[in-house]
Design a protein that fits this description.
Structural class: alpha+beta
Number of helices: 3
Oligomer: single chain
Radius of gyration: 16 Å
Largest sheet: 10 strands, antiparallel
Helix content: 10-25%
Shape: globular
Amino acid sequence: MKALLCSLVLGLLVVTQGDAQIDASQVSGRWLTHYIAADNIEKITEGAPFHIFMRYIEFDEENGTVHFHFYIKKNGECIEKYVSGLREETHYAINYAGHNEFQLISGDKDYLIVHHLNVDPDGKETELVGLFGAGNNVDPKHEEEFRNAVRERGIPEENIRNFIDNDDCPEE
């Protein structure tokens, strides 16, 4: 019985999304946006809803929720946002600039690669891939893993945008 309970507790601590199995305790915390790629580049340019500068992601496994704290930029001004979502079978469902499916690809305490599908209020779908880091630098091998994820989803590499070098929004 103790083994069953232990297995259940350990199972609750793991975020399972797609092929990724990531310990939620390692990925909840401070994150900075390094790169975002989108098949619709208009969604990640300044003033667009996914031109985001991440500050914090919290996975609440007990309640099956995820909470984001980030900034968007409009006309050079940083605008603070808080968004939450609910865990579904293969992703987190989030209502922000339409319907979103947020999925972890890989990560650990230093980096996080995510896939994001947005269906805006007009029904237009946009695929995004993001690379977040715990600090101002990420290992080049994680940048390459991010670029591979971008290619796998058919997003042109010229649609990758660097966010970390342009992040002048307030820190946590």
